[in-house]
Structure formats: structure tokens, C-alpha cells
Amino acid sequence: WGTHEAMLAAIEHAIGAGPFLLGERFTMADVVFGGTVRWMLSFGMLEKRPAFVDYVARLDARPAWKRAVAKNAVVRAEHGIG
């Protein structure tokens, strides 16, 4: 395995037991790590493996995430952004 493949395997392993990094518990680690995975997927910097896409989908399904997205949309609209 090359370094890149080892990194991808490590990420898959970390989120594989899920649904979150620490199992059933959503923690700050998911906020930081999940945000990074989401960002990297959205910009094509991370291969769209099912484990990665499913992890981000679980994060995106959380009510707090949906509220944050809605609030951000209001702010963007107020400022004429996107």
C-alpha cells in the first residue's frame, strides 16, 4: 500500500464501526473530522468511497446540522452571497 491508500484505509477504519467516530456517540471529533471529510469530498480531494459518503450523510441528517445550514442560508441571502 502506498501512503495515500493507507490514509484512505485509516479513515474508513475510523468511521467503519460508526455511526460516528466513537461509535453511537456524536462528539466534537465528528464535528472537526466530519467537517474535514465533507469539505474534502465536496472539492474532490477525497475519493467518494461509500464509507465516506455514508458518514457525511449521517452527519448531515442530524437536526443540529440542518438548523445550521438553514441559518447559514438566511445569512447568505441577507448578504447576497450564493
Which helices and strands, and how do they pair?
Elements lengths: L2 H14 L11 H15 L7 H11 L2 H16 L4
Helix pairs in contact: 2-3
Average pLDDT confidence is 93
Structural class: mainly alpha
**What composes the largest sheet?**
none
Note the run of SSEs as H and E.
Answer: HHHH
Beta-strand level of the residues, as a percent range? under 5%
Helix content: 55-70%
Name the overall outline: globular
Radius of gyration: 14 Å
Q: Can you count the helices?
A: 4
Low-confidence stretches: none
The tally of beta strands, per DSSP, is: 0
Taking the alpha carbons of the first and last residues, their distance comes to 41 Å
Give a written overview of the molecule.
The chain is mainly α. The chain contains 4 helices and no strands. It has helices at residues 3-16, 28-42, 50-60, 63-78. Helix 2 packs across helix 3. The protein is globular and about 45 Å long. The N and C termini lie far apart (41 Å). The mean pLDDT is 93.
